[in-house]
What we know:
The structure holds two protein chains of two kinds.
Chain A: E1 13-16, H1 25-29, E2 35-39, H2 42-46, H3 49-59, E3 63-68, H4 77-90, E4 94-99, H5 101-116, H6 120-124, E5 126-127, E6 137-141, E7 153-158, E8 163-168, E9 176-179, H7 189-208, H8 214-236, H9 241-261, H10 265-277, H11 281-295, H12 297-310, H13 320-340, H14 358-365, H15 380-390
Parallel strand pairs in A: 1-9, 2-3, 2-4, 4-6, 5-8, 6-9
Antiparallel strand pairs in A: 7-8
Helix pairs in contact in A: 4-5, 7-8, 7-9, 7-11, 8-9, 10-11, 10-14, 11-12, 11-13, 11-15, 12-13, 14-15
Chain B: H1 7-22, H2 25-34, E1 37-43, E2 47-52, E3 59-62, E4 71-76, H3 77-84, H4 90-95, E5 99-102, H5 105-110, H6 112-115, H7 118-128
Parallel strand pairs in B: 1-4
Antiparallel strand pairs in B: 1-2, 2-3, 4-5
Amino acid sequence: MLPEFYQFHHPTKVIYGEGLVNDFAHELEELGVKNYFIVSDHVLNGLGLIQQIREGLEEAGFTITGEFYDVPQDASVEAVESISRQATDSGAQGLIAIGGGSVMDATKAANVIFSEGGDLVEDYSGAATLTRTLKPFIAIPTTAGTGSENTIIAMIYDVANKTKLAFSDKYLLPDLAVLDPVMSQSMPPGLTASTGMDALTHAVESYLGVDTSPHSEALAVAAIKYIFKYLVRATQKGDDLDARGGMLIAANMAGSSFSHSMVGCVHAMAHAVGGLTRVPHGVANAILLPHGMEYNFDVCKEKFAELAPVMGVDVTGKSIDEAARGAIAAVRDLGRQLYALDALPVRLRDAGVPEESLPAIAEAATEDGTIVYNPREVMAEEILVHLKNAY
Amino acid sequence: MSVFESREIFKEVIVGFFNLLGDTPLVADKLMASKMVIRFIYSDPDLAVVVDCSGDAMDVRPDDTDTKALVEMSMKADIAHKFWFGKVNLTMALTRRQMVAKGPIPKILKLLPAIKPSYAMYPKYLDENGYSQYNIH
C-alpha cells in the first residue's frame, strides 16, 4: 500500500571515487567561496590524511584558514561553539568536516551559528528552526556508519545539562559529500564492524518504520545488500578498498533512508544502553538488532520476508514466516561472523552491561523519542524480555 | 481562508480544549509526568498559549509570552486544529515546515503516545461546546 503522503528531499551532491579527496577541488568552485575551515580529529591528522586534502585544495587556489581537531567522542556544545568562533575569526567562508559522526555532527551544528550567529541551544535546538540556506559545507566521512553526511540531523551533547540535543533541519545537510574509500581504510576492525552494523540498523529500522516511503525503502534495500556483501570483508581486511567503498556507499544510503523515515525500537534500546552503561552506539545496535526484529516480528514479518533474499537468504519454497525468520537469522549470522573476527560482542554481558541495569534500560527505552516510529508500541516489560535474551 | 474567523473564537476553542485535557487523567497524568512547559505560538489568527505541566496541575495560560518554555511549537491555527483531529503527522509536519519545534525534540515526540486519546476527544468537545461548525466529519 502506498503512503498517503511522503516527500523526499535530497539536495546534497554525493561523489564517490578512490583517491577522490585529492581531486575534488573543482567541485568546490560552484559553491562560490575560496576560504575554508577544516574540522577533523587528531588521529586522522596524525595519519597525514588532512595534510593531503589541505595541499590539494591549496594547489587549486583555495585557502584553508584554520583547523580544529578537538571534537570529543560525543560532539559537545562547547566544541560546536569553538568551531564557529575559530572559523569566523580565521576569515573562513565555508566549513569542511573530515571524520566520523561526531566530527560531522559538530560541524553541521557549527555551521548554524557560523552562518546565522545567535545561541546554538536557545535559538536553534529543535526541528525546522532555520529559515534559509547556510554557508557552504563539505563532509568527508572516514567511518561507514552514521551516514551523517547525508542526514538532516545533528546530535550534540549538552555537558552542562547532561542531555543530548537534537537539531533537525533540511538546511543542515552538506552541499557536498565526498566518499573516498582511502579515507576509511585506517579504521580498526572493531570500529569497522560496529559502525557497519549501525548502518545496517539504520537501513532495517527505516525500512520497517511507520514513516517509511518508496524512496527510503529503495535506499534501505540497497544499503542492506551492500552491507551483507562488504562488511565482513572490510572488517577482515581493512585495505580492501572495494569493501571500504561499498560500506561508505551503504552507510550513505542508509543515512539518507533513515533521515526521511527515522528509526525504531532497536535505537531506543541502544540509546538507553549507551546512556546508562556507556556502551558505544554501534556496538549496542549490533547486539540488539536481531532482538528488536524479534520484538517487531508479528507486525513486520512480510517486510522481513522481503528483506531475506536481499540478505542472501534462499527463500525458495519458504512461507512468509520462514523467510522472515531467515532474515533475522541472517542478521544474527552476520553478527557472529564479526564476533569470530574478534570485532564485536554478540551479547550485552560481553559488552560490559551489568545485568541489574536491564530493567532501567527497558524503562529508558520506552521514553526514547524514536519509539513513535516503531511499527509496534514499545512496552517496557516486553522490551525487558528481549533485553534479557540479548544478555 | 482560515478555519477560525477570529482570534477570540480560536482562543476560546483551544484554551477550552487544553483545559479539558488537563482534567482528563488518561492524558493529563502523562503530560504532568513530563514536567514540561510548552508554548504554542499560533498564527492566522495569532495567539500564544502556555501549557505548564511543572506544577501540581496543568496550567493553561493564553497570551503568556513571558514564561520561559522548554519547548516552543509554532504553527498556523489551522494546522493545530487538524492536529487535534489526529490528521497531522507531527514528524511529517516538522519536515514540511508546517510546524517549527524549538527545544528537545525527543521529549516532544515522547508525548505523542500520551496525547493519542485526545484525537477522539476533540471532535466530541467541539460538538458538546457549541463549536460543531468547526468539526470535520
